[in-house]
Amino acid sequence: MAIPHPTGVDVSHFQGTVDFAKLKSGGQSFVSIKATQGTHYSSASYYTDNIDKARKAGLISGGYHFYSGTLDGAD
Fold first, then answer.
1. Which of 24, 46, 63, 75 is exposed most, by the fewest CB atoms within 10 A?
2. Residue 2 lies in a domain
């Protein structure tokens, strides 16, 4: 018997409005939501709005910081 594995997606401001109930009904079990990038980008309102909606839809939810390996870490 195969052991089921969790499936999920990451979302950011590029996706705009996300239908988390549709993700859940489509078989997704988690979502990771972009909160920050480097030292210049913070999307606190996008993150807080969406983490609440994702959790209400029954998805395991968390945030992430986006880092580009081409930068020196100061950005």
1. 75
2. no
